[in-house]
Specification:
Helix content: 40-55%
Distance between the termini: 25 Å
Strand content: under 5%
Shape: globular
Order of helices and strands: HHHH
Radius of gyration: 14 Å
Number of strands: 0
Oligomer: single chain
Number of helices: 4
Mean pLDDT: 84
Structural class: mainly alpha
Length: 91
Amino acid sequence: MYPPTDAGLRTAQVIANLNVIKPVLKLGTKKEEVLELRKLLYHWNICVDAYSDVFDKSLETAVKTFQRRVFLDDDGIVGCLTWQALYRGSC
């Protein structure tokens, strides 16, 4: 395996130091960030039913699936740790 390039190392450091400041999302929330959440879940191969800015029951189920996958409490609420895991792929 080749050592990381300077660009690769800088990217890894940015990701490692990522502080995600996003609103808490839960069932019933209607915000633009819900669309972002849906895209992130899709990126991690978690299917979501609709493309909407409303946090519905099916999205809550998808969030719980992701949370279990990364060993978070599967409460269906997207808080700081869940946002970080969505961006990093783990906690």
